[in-house]
Amino acid sequence: MEKFGCRPGQYAQDLGWVGPDVWHAHCVKLDASEQALFAETKTGVAHCPCSNCRLGSGIAPIRQMRDRGVPVGLGVDGSASNDSSNLILEARQAMLLQRVAFGADAMSAREALELATRGGADILGRPECGRLAPGKRADLAIWDVSGLESAGS
After folding, report:
1. DSSP 47-91
2. Who wins on pLDDT, 43 or 143?
3. Is 46 strand, coil or helix?
4. Residues whose CB falls within 8 Å of the CB of residue 37, separated by 6 or more in sequence, listed in order
5. What's residue 65's pLDDT?
6. Rounded to whole angstroms, how far apart are CA atoms 76 and 116?
7. pLDDT of residue 28
8. What is the largest CA-CA distance in the chain?
9. Beta bridge partners of 23
10. Does residue 112 contact residue 95 with C-beta atoms inside 8 Å?
């Protein structure tokens, strides 16, 4: 407000940086009206929870964004603010942060997985990706979870 005379969402709109072909990283500070703007214009958000934790920038209100219809996917930002660029760990962090901020039912593991797959593909305009279904492009990774380090998973 002090520097630009408006909130971040309004600034993005003033610059023409909203629409279904646009996404913004982080969006930790979007208020309800900005979330409504992003939902209305189908402007995407790349949620980078580990980076937000490292930077101490806050917890993005992903639960509210999704409830309002904002397209949300996951990102790992860069190596300077995410040590491993591990999307599965990012999905877990997203789920845990939403639960800490908004309650234990704020995000399920299935919803976190959806953010990491379908959510990101949709924001990038790639409906042929992010889904395991006939006719879709997909990679399938399988982990051995029989070891002690995977206990409880």
Report:
1. E-HHHHHHHT-----HHHHHHHT--EEE----TTT-SS--HHHHH
2. 43
3. strand
4. 9, 10, 13, 18, 43
5. 98
6. 10
7. 95
8. 55
9. 44
10. yes
| Closest among 73, 57, 90, 48 to 127, alpha carbons compared | 73
Backbone angles phi, psi at 63, to 5 degrees: -55, -50
Tens of pLDDT, residue by residue over 74-111, are: 988 777 676 677 888 999 999 999 999 999 999 999 99
Contact 32, 9 (CB under 8 A): no
Alpha-carbon distances, residue 72 vs 4, 68, 78, 148, 151 (angstroms): 26, 11, 18, 33, 30
Distances (CA, A) of 118 to 129, 136, 138: 7, 11, 11
Per-residue confidence at 13, pLDDT binned at 50, 70, 90?
Answer: very high
**Is the Cα torsion angle 16, 91, 68, 138 positive or negative in sign?**
positive
Residue 25 DSSP SS3 = strand
Q: Which two tokens stand for residue 45?
A: 């958000």
